[in-house]
């Protein structure tokens, strides 16, 4: 982008009929980050204190500075609180920096303002909404790719006004240009623009055909100049992008609710103890006033009040602050697992998976709905010519010497096209029989490829002799023309009235007499040409059902054979076209041409009269054969969708592409299947029509929003204009019910904002976790709207990745992200929370029971050092080891049993019910841990007859029993023992005894007597057999109910995890069964037709407006033209065609080229 000038131009916006001419000029800077250096600290602290527990600990800190209340030092709360806030703030800052560091790669675009005139060059991104002024192409045309806006890879044409096109690239004229633009206010409508340009006293209308929107890419155009109309957040693309929101997991939200419940329970316990203190002071306290006189004004009620707050501090461990530190560490560790996973690394682009946030990992194990883009996410943006049928013979398959068909892989031998110096060096085809038929000059084969080389709207560019670049609005046509090129029929150039091709080394020019253009009703395209010998011929290609209706009856047998081939092609998910031709009589054609001219000049019923003429001449055709094109899916897409479906995950495809294309991909990737009971099509053009279509489905099948169990499997396909009505408030619930009943949903022709609206609709009415995945700027809004956003890197720029929570290079990695990392993260987090609450509730409840035996004096039952180190040292590492390394089954078996994912969707591992069970278990364990040691030490003497029933010995015994009980409970929770886990568990117990004997030693007492009062307690108590017997008894009594419950539960009501683990026991020493590498569809459904270019493209060709500079002249004979590879665009396997016209691996030039070429949009290095 070259910054020319800030011209003297007024942008006038109309808001509700009011002229707003004094609006400040909008800069082009945008922000995807949440913080800046000035707002980071207050915003981050505000977000952190939204966690109720953090606010609670701040309140505790205030209480602890009051000496009459606190029995603990203030630093015991300050240090952990500051540590938690610091660690979390550092993590949030890192996540935010990662999310924005790639955004502004060039500072030039930041300086652009409304009214600036800028220069764009080929392959550059448009990053502001521009009014096209002039271009390097004839008639001021430019060619753009809008994949990031609407998902379509076919090129589109924009044309500048003639009055501005005359400015050319003259900087002085552009700088002196002075005009006034009146246009609509900023909005999110990508398909329309209204405005006027007033210049030199004349007013010119402006529409969408003269606007270059932010997000599109300039293609096949050397340069162009544009005037900035909207910049930054006012551009249509940014108007479609949602706001960056702070995402929290469902477990976080549940934790806030549980913390509130815990606070209530804490207040309840403190109230009971305070009331107990009040009664004790009134009944028993008076007896101690002789040697413990009360201060003036202190009565039993005031003592109870102080006791309440003292117990708030002592019992605060029901919500330990270390919980949140541990949660952040676990999330960080599981995020590293995603970053380090080599099985999610894509070597072709050197792209690893990346967890761009560390706060949502466990949410990956609860996904119920996936919203996916199509272009670049499910597909590779590559069309490949795979097979064809010519004169009743099928080509494209490879057979061995026994006649068995072989599966084509990258190791399969390819056809040698060295006989053709103009062949695309990257074209790959494997059936040698077809090229032999071409060399043997089979007339039907030659006619087949001649039709492909002539009947199209492709443009050819030849900057150097022999270096051909094809520019096609439809990628299907690009693949077909490239296939013809490699088989010896090379389309070289065209003029408004001729098409030049090279047929087997001989250059021939055909006079172009008429183009009968394609549209969605005709579903076919025809051209009429005169050969150099003067022979008239009509060539036609289109949907097979349409072509068959117009065939001559002599083709019936050939039609039957071709139909069998078409059914086979359709069964493999290929997009088919039928080809036919007809020789024309000169006299008849002249009469038809005259009538065609008269019809084209009619003012009334022009289209219907032209259609009648087209129908008349396109009959009695002779069938040549059929083509089969693959809209190439990314590797592993069908398998991934099948696995996710088995995991009860519903997949909705939201695409800006046309309905036919989206349906074809739906069947190819196994999203839609022939086995489905029905596929509903909603395509109403009014609210009444859409409502009627939805209600007709409802009458056929009875279902409700809460119960999605329906007899059979169904699919739903809905268009964008119908979706706009369906999303209205009065109809959205009815649409959602219909969609949720279906196994798969495809929304076509949707805008980026509609994608986000669909996601928000599901979030609004369904208690389910959603995930959105896409690769372009048009997917940003739904990525932000979903609970989890995933960006596919390397296809359509980096906009989607920058807004995502997770990113990787291929859709197939999604199953590993969810079924392995997501499920493990959720399982580990739930186990961690259950165990953490158990060990801390048990620890705290012992204080509660002890209160009834210490006069409700707020005395702690444990040594203060044990209270300090319990969560920090003694139990920290074992639970972290379980939360970072535990797995119920390994990754291979997770794929083999995708049903293991379902419990996460149902919140079975951690919920309010599970929390309540945990609290009851803790209550029971705390009673055992207090009353058994209390009874064991009551009136007990040592072996030498001395009394051991003192407070310090009781505290040591109780805390030792507690530590053994919670450690054994951890062992029962753990499913996967590793060396690290074992070391952490045994090491923590060893650390406890080492620290205990050290702190209770004579030396520590002599150094600091007030801090280490338990002198000699450990060696005097732990050498008694009854102590160890008590520890054994409490451990057994604590664990026994758990073991009994689990045994009975597994026997009577086993979970899916129990069933799988029991099933795996005899298979643990066997290798897992291999996953299927390919899913072949066996379907008779015809894929329709393989066109995707817009109606009216033929008129551009014949008018000459579309034409580029003429091709270089030179010899076309095969003998004197060397085969050139420099500058060729990669065409992928079997004539894969990408409209970008650039190598797909341009960004990673050292990567070995394989048969699975993919195409990507590469940002210009100048940016």
Automatic annotation (TrEMBL):
The protein's UniProt keywords, in alphabetical order, are: ATP-binding, Coiled coil, Magnesium, Membrane, Metal-binding, Nucleotide-binding, Translocase, Transmembrane, Transmembrane helix
Q: Which reaction does it catalyse?
A: ATP + H2O + phospholipidSide 1 = ADP + phosphate + phospholipidSide 2
Instruction: Give the transmembrane region(s).
Output: 72-90, 257-280, 300-325, 832-853, 865-885, 914-934, 954-972, 984-1008, 1028-1049
| CDD domains, A to Z | P-type_ATPase_APLT_Dnf-like (cd02073)
Instruction: Name the Enzyme Commission number(s) assigned to this protein.
Output: 7.6.2.1
Domain called P-type ATPase C-terminal: residue spans: 801-1054
* Any one of the GO CC terms: trans-Golgi network
Q: Where is the active site?
A: 373
Any one biological process term the GO annotation gives: Golgi organization
Indicate what this protein is called per its UniProt record: Phospholipid-transporting ATPase
Q: State the organism named in the record.
A: Sander lucioperca (Pike-perch)
For this protein's source organism, the top of the classification is:
Eukaryota, Metazoa, Chordata, Craniata, Vertebrata
């Amino acid at each position: 982008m070259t910054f020319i000038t800030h011209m003297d131009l007024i942008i006038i916006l109309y808001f509700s009929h009011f002229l707003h001419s004094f609006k400040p000029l909008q800069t082009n800077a945008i922000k995807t980050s949440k913080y800046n250096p000035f707002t980071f600290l207050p915003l981050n602290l505000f977000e952190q204190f939204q966690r109720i527990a953090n606010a609670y600990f701040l309140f505790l800190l205030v209480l602890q500075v009051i000496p009459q209340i606190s029995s603990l030092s203030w630093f015991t709360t300050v240090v952990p609180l500051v540590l938690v806030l610091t660690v979390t703030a550092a993590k949030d800052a890192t996540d935010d920096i990662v999310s924005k560091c790639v955004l502004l790669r060039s500072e030039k675009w930041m300086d652009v303002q409304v009214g600036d005139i800028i220069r764009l060059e080929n392959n550059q991104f448009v990053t502001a909404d521009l009014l096209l002024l002039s271009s390097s192409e004839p008639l001021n045309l430019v060619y753009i790719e809008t994949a990031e806006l609407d998902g379509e890879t076919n090129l589109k044409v924009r044309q500048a006004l003639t009055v501005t096109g005359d400015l050319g690239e003259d900087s002085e004229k552009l700088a002196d240009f002075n005009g006034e633009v009146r246009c609509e206010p900023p909005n999110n409508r990508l398909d329309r623009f209204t405005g006027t340009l007033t210049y030199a006293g004349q007013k010119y209308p402006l529409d969408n055909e003269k606007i270059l929107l932010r997000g599109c890419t300039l293609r096949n155009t050397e340069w162009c100049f544009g005037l900035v109309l909207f910049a930054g957040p006012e551009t249509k693309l940014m108007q479609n992008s949602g706001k960056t929101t702070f995402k929290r997991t469902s477990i976080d939200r549940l934790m806030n609710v549980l913390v509130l419940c815990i606070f209530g329970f804490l207040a309840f316990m403190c109230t009971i103890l305070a009331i107990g203190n009040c009664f004790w002071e009134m009944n028993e306290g008076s007896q101690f006033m002789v040697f413990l006189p009360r201060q003036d004004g202190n009565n039993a009620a005031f003592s109870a009040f102080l006791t309440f707050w003292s117990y708030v501090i002592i019992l605060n461990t029901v919500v330990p602050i270390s919980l949140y530190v541990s949660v952040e560490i676990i999330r960080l560790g599981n995020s590293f697992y995603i970053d380090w996973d080599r099985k999610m690394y894509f070597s072709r682009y050197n792209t690893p998976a990346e967890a761009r946030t560390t706060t949502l990992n466990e949410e990956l194990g609860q996904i119920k709905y996936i919203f996916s883009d199509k272009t670049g996410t499910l597909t590779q943006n590559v069309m490949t010519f795979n097979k064809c049928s010519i004169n009743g013979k099928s080509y494209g398959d490879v057979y061995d010497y026994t006649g068995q068909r072989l599966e084509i892989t990258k190791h399969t031998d390819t056809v040698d096209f060295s006989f053709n110096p103009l062949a695309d060096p990257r074209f790959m085809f494997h059936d040698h029989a077809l090229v032999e038929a071409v060399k043997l000059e089979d007339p039907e084969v030659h006619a087949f490829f001649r039709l492909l080389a002539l009947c199209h709207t492709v443009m050819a560019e030849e900057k150097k002799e022999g270096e051909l670049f094809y520019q096609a609005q439809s990628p299907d046509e690009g693949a077909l023309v490239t296939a013809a090129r490699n088989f010896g029929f090379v389309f070289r150039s065209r003029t408004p009235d001729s098409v030049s091709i090279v047929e087997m080394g001989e250059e021939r020019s055909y006079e172009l007499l008429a183009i009968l253009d394609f549209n969605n009703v005709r579903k076919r395209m025809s051209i009429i040409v005169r050969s150099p010998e003067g022979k008239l011929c009509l060539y036609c290609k289109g949907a097979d059902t349409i072509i068959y209706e117009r065939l001559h009856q002599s083709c019936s047998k050939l039609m039957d054979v071709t139909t069998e081939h078409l059914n086979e092609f359709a069964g493999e998910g290929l997009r088919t076209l039928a080809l036919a031709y007809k020789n024309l009589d000169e006299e008849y054609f002249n009469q038809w041409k005259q009538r065609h001219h008269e019809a084209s000049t009619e003012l009334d019923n022009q289209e219907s009269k032209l259609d009648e003429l087209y129908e008349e001449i396109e009959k009695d055709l002779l069938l040549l054969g059929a083509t089969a094109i693959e809209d190439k899916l990314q590797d592993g897409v069908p398998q991934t969708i099948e696995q996710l479906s088995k995991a009860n995950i519903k997949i909705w495809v939201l695409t800006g592409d046309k309905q036919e294309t989206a349906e074809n991909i739906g069947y190819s990737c196994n999203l839609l299947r022939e086995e489905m009971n029905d596929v509903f099509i909603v395509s109403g053009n009014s609210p009444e029509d859409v409502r009627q279509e939805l209600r007709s489905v409802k009458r056929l099948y009875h279902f409700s929003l809460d119960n999605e169990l329906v007899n059979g499997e169904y699919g739903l396909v809905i268009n964008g204009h119908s979706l706009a009505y369906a999303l209205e408030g009065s109809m959205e619930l009815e649409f959602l019910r219909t969609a949720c009943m279906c196994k798969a949903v495809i929304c076509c022709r949707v805008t980026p904002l509609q994608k986000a609206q669909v996601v928000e609709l599901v979030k609004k009415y369904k208690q389910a976790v959603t995930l959105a995945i896409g690769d372009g700027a048009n997917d940003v809004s739904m990525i932000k709207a979903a609970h989890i956003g995933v960006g596919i890197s390397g296809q359509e720029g980096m906009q989607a990745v920058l807004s995502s929570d997770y990113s990787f290079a291929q859709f197939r990695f999604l199953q590993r992200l969810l079924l392995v990392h997501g499920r493990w993260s959720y399982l580990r987090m739930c186990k961690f929370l259950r165990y953490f609450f158990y060990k801390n509730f048990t620890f705290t409840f012992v204080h509660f029971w002890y209160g009834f035996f210490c006069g409700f004096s707020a005395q702690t039952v444990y040594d203060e050092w044990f209270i300090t180190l319990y969560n920090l040292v003694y139990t920290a590492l074992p639970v972290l080891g379980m939360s970072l390394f535990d797995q119920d089954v390994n990754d291979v078996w997770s794929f083999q049993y995708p049903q293991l994912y379902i419990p996460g969707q149902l919140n079975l591992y951690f919920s309010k019910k599970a929390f309540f069970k945990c609290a009851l278990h803790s209550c029971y364990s705390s009673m055992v841990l207090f009353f058994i040691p209390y009874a064991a030490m009551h009136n007990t003497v040592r072996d030498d007859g001395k009394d051991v029933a003192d407070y310090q010995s009781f505290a040591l015994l109780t805390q030792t029993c507690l530590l053994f009980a919670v450690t054994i409970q951890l062992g029962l929770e753990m499913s996967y023992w590793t060396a690290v886990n074992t070391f952490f568990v045994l090491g923590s117990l060893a650390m406890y005894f080492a620290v205990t004997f050290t702190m209770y030693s004579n030396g520590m007492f002599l150094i600091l007597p007030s801090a280490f009062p338990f002198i000699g307690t450990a060696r005097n108590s732990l050498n008694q057999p009854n102590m160890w017997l008590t520890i054994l008894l409490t451990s057994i009594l604590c664990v026994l109910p758990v073991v009994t419950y689990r045994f009975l539960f597994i026997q009577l009501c086993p979970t899916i995890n129990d069933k799988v683990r029991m099933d795996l026991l005899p298979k643990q020493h066997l290798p897992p069964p291999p996953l299927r590498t390919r899913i072949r569809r066996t379907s008779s459904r015809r894929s329709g037709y393989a066109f995707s270019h817009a109606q009216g493209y033929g008129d551009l060709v014949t008018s000459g407006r579309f034409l580029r500079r003429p091709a270089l002249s030179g010899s076309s004979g095969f003998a004197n033209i060397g085969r050139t590879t420099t500058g060729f665009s990669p065409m992928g396997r079997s004539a894969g065609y990408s409209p970008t016209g650039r190598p797909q691996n341009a960004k990673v030039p050292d990567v070995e080229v394989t048969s699975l070429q993919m195409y990507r949009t590469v940002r210009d290095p100048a940016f």
